Amino acid sequence: MGQPKIQYKTNAQMRTMREAGLVLSRALDAACAAAVPGARTRDLDAVFADVLKEAGATSNFLGYHGFPATICTSVNEEVVHGIPGDKVLADGDIISIDGGAIVDGWHADSARTVIVGEADPADRRLSDVTEEAMWRGIAAAARGRFVGDIGNAIDDYVTGVPGEKLGILEDYVGHGIGSEMHQAPDVLNYRTGHRGPKLKAGMCLAIEPMLVRGDIETAVLEDEWTVITVDGSRSCQWEHSVAIHEKGIWVLTAPDGGASRLEPLGVTPVPIP
Fold it and tell me: Is 19 annotated as contributing to ligand binding?
């Protein structure tokens, strides 16, 4: 078997993905704002779905291999793929909200972490380090030569942060995105000896580090979706979809294209021509 073929997008196709990314950003804004003590995770799903519907976009999560909701809500020791339901959010919970949108057949995928109410400083640090690691990976997509450079940058940043050691999940990784939500290539969040494919114009990637405060071993619950840390340690996910074009990179799911977080790292994102 050969390697899965990478789909290279035209500028017009990437601009449509940008439309999906902006709808998705607004939907995540609404879901994150709804993540307050006493809210049920299904409430977050409902407000997210309403934004997509109002914009005329569709969900790429709902029905995906039978997934029953428009977002994943992963709380505390839940790493990814948590199913929204009757779980009531409590003060101090940490929740990762992962969602996607489709506009005219083109996909966007993004995730954010919210700390509900008063934050444990260790959880705040976990989220801040995960988010910055994502931006370091995105900067590497702009400067690097190979997809593997993204994982190297994420790993180097996380392992270099002083204080409590955080684990980088290895069971779940980023991916290509375009006319489908999950495409080649895999985008690892850790350093390996593999360079991966060359970074080229037309490539769109979902960069999504997942970090934990303990051991990186995971298990899947009986619902066959929700992934938890085996040791019960808290986890975090941040994700953006990024387009690489002939003029530079543009973060499809960030309203400013990523400028506010990338420019301090020496990268100036460029809108898709």
Answer: no
